[in-house]
Design goal:
It is a single chain. It is elongated, with a radius of gyration of 20 Å. The protein is mainly alpha-helical. The longest helix is centred in the middle third of the chain and has 36 residues, at 83-118. Helix content is 74%, strand content 5%. The chain has one domain. A two-stranded antiparallel ribbon has the order 1-2. It has helices at 5-38, 45-59, 62-68, 83-118, 132-155, and strands spanning 121-124, 127-130.
Length: 156
């Protein structure tokens, strides 16, 4: 069975988040080892983790959760609504999520493009570390979330 575009996009987001979690774990482990062995931690670990790794970790799995319907739900209202009303409410909810995620993707993509154009970077000692990949992960994740919500609305 061939996977749909939203399903493939969600899997890519999950894979990116999992890969970055592994890299972040390795980086922090090396930082701790350097501190234990030499008394001096690696320079810039906190900055690199917060600017480069965390956007992938935080936003990478959003679309997959939405696509699978694994988000936190409050079913109080569902219990008193008829099946057609529940289906309509689900479609409306997915539409609202898709529109909000699309707007967030647009706005954060402008910020990521601005960071890329300006060559935004961190200076850690003599190292310059670009920050646009972390900033670009956010609009990509919101775009995937919008796509997942649209697909879920279609399926409901």
């Amino acid at each position: 069975m061939q996977r749909s575009l939203p399903d493939r996009a969600c899997r890519i987001g999950e894979l990116a988040a999992a890969t970055v979690i592994g890299l972040m774990t390795l980086h922090i482990g090396l930082d701790v080892a350097a501190l234990a062995l030499s008394g001096t931690p690696l320079r810039g670990t906190a900055e690199i983790v917060s600017e480069l790794y965390m956007p992938f970790v935080v936003f990478g799995g959003l679309a997959a959760v939405q696509y699978a319907g694994d988000e936190i739900r409050v079913d109080i209202i569902d219990g008193i609504l008829s099946q057609p009303l529940r289906r309509g409410l689900e479609k409306l909810t997915q539409l609202i999520v898709a529109l909000a995620a699309g707007a967030l993707a647009w706005q954060t993509s402008l910020q990521a493009l601005d960071a890329l154009k300006q060559g935004e970077h961190l200076v850690i000692g003599t190292m310059r570390i670009i920050t646009w990949p972390g900033k670009a992960a956010i609009p990509a994740a919101f775009a995937m979330l919008a796509l997942a919500s649209i697909d879920r609305m279609r399926r409901s």
